[in-house]
Amino acid sequence: MCSSLPMNQPKSDFDLRVLQRMGLISEFEIGNRGIVQEEQASILFFCRISPTDFGVMLYAAAHNRLKWWANLGLQESFGKFIDVEPLEVYGRTLEELLERTP
Structural domain of residue 8, as residue ranges? Predict the structure, then answer.
């Protein structure tokens, strides 16, 4: 899963390293790419994360959905998170993320 990062968000990888060390994600990448759209150059900051089966299962269990964890899909909803803003741009690959970037 890739997502764009807000410009004002710190680019620290500390939290991601903890998630990786605990076995919840297998790998991650934080970076940036230069893009040109309509003759305007800009930089897209991104974060790519690969969750582990255990990470997905633990997340589902935390939301009382362990029974159905293997069938999780994009339509599965875990409710609203008050302190977490929804992603504006996302994609399964960096190329898909770049295609969806306005």
Answer: 2-100
